[in-house]
C-alpha cells in the first residue's frame, strides 16, 4: 500500500495547467501517483484574457469538469459550473474563462477498447 500527499498553492494552478496526479509507469512531473494509467490536471483561469492548451493524444480520452464558474472549451462547448465533457484524442483543447474566472479539472486516461 502506498500513500502520498502534497500541498499545492493557488498560484501553482493560476492561469496554467497543473499536473497533480500521474501514473507510476510514466516518468512525468506529477507530484502524486496512482497505480493506474491516468493523469489529472487542474487549472484556475483568473483573467478573461488567459487561456491554457492541452494536447490529448491518439488512443487517450479525457473527462473535463467545470469546478467553479464557466469555462469555454474552444471549438467544442462552454461548460457551466458542475458540467462535464468526455473527449477522445487526438485533439487540441484550448480553455478560456467564459467571464473573468474558471476553475476546472482534466482527468485523462487510456481509451476503453470497444467490445465486439
Kindly describe this structure.
- The chain is mainly beta and 116 residues long.
- It has one domain: Jelly Rolls.
- The chain is 3% helix and 56% strand.
- It is built from one helix and eight strands.
- The chain has one helix at 10-13; strands at residues 18-23, 32-34, 38-45, 51-56, 60-73, 77-79, 84-88, 91-110.
- Strands 1, 2, 3, 4, 5, 6, 7 and 8 form an eight-stranded mixed sheet that branches.
- The longest helix has 4 residues, at 10-13.
- It starts with 9 loop residues before the first helix and ends in a 6-residue tail after the last strand.
Main sheet overview: 8 strands, mixed
Sheet-strand content, in percent, reads over 45%
Distance between the termini: 35 Å
Number of helices in the DSSP assignment: 1
Query: What sort of overall outline do the alpha carbons produce when their principal axes are compared?
Result: globular
Low-confidence segments = none
- Total discrete domains: 1
* Assembly level: single chain
The name of the CATH architecture is: Sandwich
